[in-house]
């Protein structure tokens, strides 16, 4: 890390390990002395120890096929888009090459990432542009295939197809199969032909479920619909259930969490706690790791990155 002298503006390299003993002893600030001009000035330890991890550059095994994870639940407002964007950004920070596909007409992924793509999923599905022209590089290692209003027209085209309509998305995305480690697909609420397409394309399902009674009911309905798809497509598996909006001050959510633990012990992930930074970050076009790196929300999404990637040391250094 770098400390800049406020008097002579010289940058000085500092090893964070030398500062940890001060922080562990409960010190909030240290007195730094500039090696060039000898000026002494206070530096807050929390600002030094809360560093953004530098993105690692991805190393892909040649020919490896991307894991295709859709983030879906028919119920609206449960944290699908928030989870897609922050899980994608976290995996990218951990060094994986990630493509985020937004299949929602609300097109919120680009807004959260502070991007205004000229083209996206619509142009890919209608073959108006080449695959590479439809992708937006949103961050290091993170690409976006944006959604938006124009997808409504695409849904009509899919609906009118008399044969193989459910494979429209799979066919359009197939050239991207071995260019990424993860392809994450965010879906809209409800149930339509585009969501069926997503379920015919993905191999893993991640369900974010707000810890309230209604979304739990919505989840069991969704699991029935997924079962109907699995009759035709056995590759798709419900892999992760991510409780969202956990507020430990209230009794109800904890009870619902325990209920989920009994029903889905293998799929249940650590919850994402309620945190206002998650609602604030989008208006700054920032992910949670950029907006509030030291928050509980950042911690919870980093834990989800480890769970989904199976890489237990991913983003551990990140504070
Ligand atoms: N853990 C959380 N704590 C606080 N606010 C959150 C949390 N997760 C998401 N939010 C906020 O809740 C709202 C709904 O989240 P989000 O848009 O991710 O849900 P969604 O399931 O994608 O909704 P839709 O079904 O409309 O697509 C957003 O304003 C988001 O910023
Ligand atoms: Mg959404």
UniProtKB/TrEMBL annotation:
<feature type="domain" description="AAA">
    <location>
        <begin position="67"/>
        <end position="234"/>
    </location>
</feature>
<dbReference type="InterPro" id="IPR050678">
    <property type="entry name" value="DNA_Partitioning_ATPase"/>
</dbReference>
<protein>
    <submittedName>
        <fullName>ATPase involved in chromosome partitioning</fullName>
    </submittedName>
</protein>
<dbReference type="Pfam" id="PF13614">
    <property type="entry name" value="AAA_31"/>
</dbReference>
<dbReference type="InterPro" id="IPR027417">
    <property type="entry name" value="P-loop_NTPase"/>
</dbReference>
<dbReference type="InterPro" id="IPR025669">
    <property type="entry name" value="AAA_dom"/>
</dbReference>
């Amino acid at each position: 890390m770098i400390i800049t002298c406020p008097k002579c503006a010289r940058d000085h390299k500092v090893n964070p390990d030398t500062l940890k003993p001060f922080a562990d002893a409960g010190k909030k600030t240290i007195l730094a002395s500039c090696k060039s001009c000898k000026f002494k000035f206070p530096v807050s330890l929390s600002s030094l120890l809360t560093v953004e991890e530098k993105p690692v550059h991805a190393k892909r095994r040649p020919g490896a096929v991307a894991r295709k994870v859709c983030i879906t639940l028919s119920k609206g407002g449960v944290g699908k888009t928030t989870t897609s964007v922050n899980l994608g950004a976290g995996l990218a920070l951990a060094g994986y090459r990630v493509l985020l596909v937004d299949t929602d007409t609300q097109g919120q992924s680009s807004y959260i990432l502070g991007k205004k793509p000229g083209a996206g999923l619509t142009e890919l599905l209608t073959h108006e542009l080449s695959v590479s022209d439809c992708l937006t590089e949103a961050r290091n290692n993170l690409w976006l295939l944006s959604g938006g209003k124009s997808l409504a027209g695409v849904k009509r085209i899919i609906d009118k197809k008399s044969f193989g309509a459910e494979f429209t998305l799979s066919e359009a995305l197939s050239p991207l199969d071995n260019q990424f480690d993860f392809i994450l697909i965010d879906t809209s609420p409800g149930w339509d032909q585009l969501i069926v397409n997503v379920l015919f394309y993905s191999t893993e399902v991640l369900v974010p479920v707000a810890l309230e009674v209604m979304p739990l009911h919505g989840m069991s309905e969704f699991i029935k619909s997924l079962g109907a798809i699995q009759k035709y497509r056995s590759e798709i598996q419900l892999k992760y259930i991510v409780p969202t909006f956990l507020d430990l001050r209230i009794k109800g959510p904890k009870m619902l969490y325990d209920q989920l633990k009994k029903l889905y012990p293998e799929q249940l992930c650590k919850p994402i706690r309620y945190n206002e930074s998650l609602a604030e970050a989008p208006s700054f076009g920032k992910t949670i790791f950029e907006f509030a790196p030291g928050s509980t929300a950042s911690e919870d999404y980093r834990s989800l990155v480890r769970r989904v990637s199976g890489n237990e040391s991913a983003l551990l250094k990140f504070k």
